[in-house]
From TrEMBL:
InterPro entries: F420H2_quin_Rdtase, Split_barrel_FMN-bd. This is Nitroreductase family deazaflavin-dependent oxidoreductase. Belongs to the F420H(2)-dependent quinone reductase family. It catalyses: oxidized coenzyme F420-(gamma-L-Glu)(n) + a quinol + H(+) = reduced coenzyme F420-(gamma-L-Glu)(n) + a quinone. NCBIfam families: hi_GC_TIGR00026 (TIGR00026). Pfam families: F420H2_quin_red (PF04075).
Amino acid sequence: MLFGKEHVERYRATDGAEGHEWQGTTALILTTKGRKTGRRHDTPLIYQRHGDDYLVVASKGGADAPPSWYLNLQADPEVEVQVLGDRFQATARTATPEEKPELWQIMTAAWPAYDEYQTKTDREIPVIVLERTSP
């Protein structure tokens, strides 16, 4: 997470004018449905484009446990994404082993610390592909 709730509120209020650019990279807002509560959870995440898709990384700073948003989308891959003022529905999936090397390189070019995070854990940090489902 970046700034958490404050980041989400500022991003939403300004259509990303505040919060899209973050520490030299870009952020989107991912909304998942809680796997236990069913409530909506908004998470600011670093992203990059890959064709028509959006990529995010479930790193949690290299923690041994994955972030809760990743567990949520594993339970229900139908998510909402906001990039600047564009809000849309998407389906989230974990990159396949064949896709991951290329996608990991894209993400580490945007945020080199992902390589360091991977050295901190035995967990394979996944790259998530967000495939737009609504116009």
